[in-house]
Amino acid sequence: MDSSLSLEPVSHFFYSHRLKLQFWDWGSKGKPALLLVHGGLDHARSWDWVARALREDFHVYALDLRGHGNSNWAPGALYSVLEHVLDLATWADIIQKEPIYLLGHSLGAITTLLYSGTFPERVKKLVAIEGIGLPIQERKGTAPERLRKWIDRTRAGEGRAPHSYPDLATAVARMKEANQFLSDEVAEHLTLHGTNWNADGSMVWKFDNYVRLLPTFINTPADSAEILQQISCPTLLFWGRESFAKDPETEPLAQGIRNRQIVKVDRAGHWLHHDRLDLFLSETKRFLSD
Description:
Rossmann fold; 20% strand
């Protein structure tokens, strides 16, 4: 049996913005640092298959974003993209292996893109999955209208109770409902690492419900474009052809990234690193080793 298939990462914690956040250390010492950042409502252990494959060439780390996985929930529900970038900057300083390699999905891709444009000298290469044209670009209406909408959504969310599931099978079924491409094995793994048991044996997702209320009025489209234009490292953008996300080939924000490559994946949705793992790994390895 291949020992790498049963390899488990080491859990560590650090503090950022007075929050206790968890990250997982996959090894291998002495190799370049690769930091993995998951998407919204997800967790760091969703990277397990990717981490096992890439640790052959990198010292791999995976972060639980604030309000997700085993990281603390933020008092006052401070979950803007800018807070996530702050946490990534703190985490990268703790790793202290610059320049670093970054890989992010969805919210994590947005976070790594903004970090790479803010600290371009600290990033060697960047892989962003389905991160262009999501919350950093949703700017309908005037600034007061957007702020009022966020306040209304936040106050409405205060009355929303976390949904519980009577057993693991029901929670796994919900996971597969969200992504039709998941196998039973992958869905169960993601669910086991993404839930907690209640005292009555029911299960609830680990993430804070307030992470759903991502404020989008803090950084403007012009700010985001200006930051992304400062990215100097080679950047690989993935997009699933059956995803709800926007095509990076036609997305203005993506066009501001000078040294970019785009991979469009057939028969894959928003979580294409699960849907087409082999293709994702082959393209990522090629890009990182060039």
